[in-house]
Amino acid sequence: MRQASPLMPDSHSVGRSYQYAQPPAIVVGACGHGLALVRALSEGSVPVLMLESDLSLPGTLTHLAELVPIADINGPTLVETLLNLRQRIRCPGNPVLFLTNDTMVRTIGHAWERLTDSYTLSWGDAAERLLPLLDKVALEAHCEQVGVAYPSTLVLRNPAEAEAAARAIGFPIIVKPSRPLSRFKTALPQSVGELLGLFERYPSDLPFLVQRFIPGDDRSIHFCALYLDHGQVLARFDGHKLRSRPMGHTSIAEALVDQAVFEQTLRFFAPLQLSGPVSLELKKDQAGALWVIEPTVGRTDFWIGLCVVNGVNIPLLEYCHQAGRPLPGVRQSDAAVWFNEDRDPMGRLWLGWILHLMRGRRASYLFLHRDDLGPSFAFLKEFLREFGTAVWRGLGKRLGRLRA
């Protein structure tokens, strides 16, 4: 919700030393995802350093991690920052690294040889096999190779290709940017004209992927999260979406065990013998067939809080596995529904008061947390400010129309 406010490292953080009796976790990013990782690790009393370049984020106010301001969390300077930071950390073994988006996964993966003596990374030895899955253009070939269904896909690099692509795939179609951290996640144009409009609105996000849209609402989207050790499953969590706001962003999700989803996920990842956290999002069509939407590799997904609150604490298991500590027990439950109140502030109202789907389960939130009030208050303050501004603007427009 907040506007980015770049932060340069202050004199306190640049030269400070850190000493721990156990390897600390290094969480790169204080977004809602990074905050969820910190809170998950706190369940095992793991010391955490959180790296961030934007102090306006609510997650920077957590009391469960020590904030280390840095200049950039996504670019190539992140590697140098981590090398410099390691020189100031005193601990047995090496710190365990946790990343929060695909851009930093790619950055660290390509530079892992420089970092391997300084940090522990659950998927470090599998980087060469893992990084190709970040390329959305290559997913169709991988799905064909492993025998899982993937919607017909074309790559659009300029507007001249739009009409032929739409004719080849046929409406309805869905459009996605091929690169991470783009200005939109998905779009569902209803005509060639609307497709061309995406080129005008998002020229810096090219190329686009254009796919056949699999019919079905948000609740037909399932996912399976795994923690792997050279292909062996050490933890599993199945769930599905209840609501996406805006389209493509999970704003409400629940636990839902589905053996078919699990088996399809295993089939997708099996040939690669990966390590670390992975997940696969699939859509179930009206005939019950599962279609791959996209994988997440090298990090947990944004909805990791859903897994943690329902008994499968993958970040803590990952830390223990990498630090050589006893692995915590994991067992999936259906105790809570997860809400991304940042993307969908009214989601709790929609689910609990209108559809009555809570079924006695408690609510778990991206920011709001009774044991970590700093981010909760920061989010509420910003939400109320933006809500008040929107109401005031709406009243102003209405008064203007009445006067006219």
Identify the notable features of this structure and list them briefly:
single chain; 404 residues; alpha/beta; Rossmann fold; D-amino Acid Aminotransferase, Chain A, domain 1; 3 domains
Tell me what the structure shows:
By secondary structure, this protein is α/β, with parallel strands linked by helices. The protein has 3 domains: 123 residues, 3-Layer(aba) Sandwich (Rossmann fold), CATH 3.40.50.20; 61 residues, ATP-grasp fold, A domain (Dna Ligase, domain 1, 2-Layer Sandwich), CATH 3.30.1490; 156 residues, ATP-grasp fold, B domain (D-amino Acid Aminotransferase, Chain A, domain 1, 2-Layer Sandwich), CATH 3.30.470. A hairpin with a 5-residue loop joins strand 13 and strand 14. Helix 2 packs across helix 12. The longest helix is centred in the last third of the chain and has 31 residues. The chain is globular. The N terminus is likely disordered.
| Number of discrete helical segments | 14
- CATH fold name of the largest domain: D-amino Acid Aminotransferase, Chain A, domain 1
| Main beta-sheet strand count, sense and barrel state | 7 strands, mixed
Q: Rg from C-alpha positions? A: 22 Å
Q: What's the number of structural domains?
A: 3
Any low-confidence stretches, pLDDT <50, length ≥5?
Answer: 1-13
What general outline do the C-alpha atoms trace?
globular
Question: Roughly what percent helix?
Answer: 25-40%
Strand and helix order = HEEHEEHEEHHHHEHEHEEEEHEEHHEHEH
Q: Which whole number gives the mean pLDDT?
A: 90
Main sheet strand line-up: 14-13-10-11-12-15-16
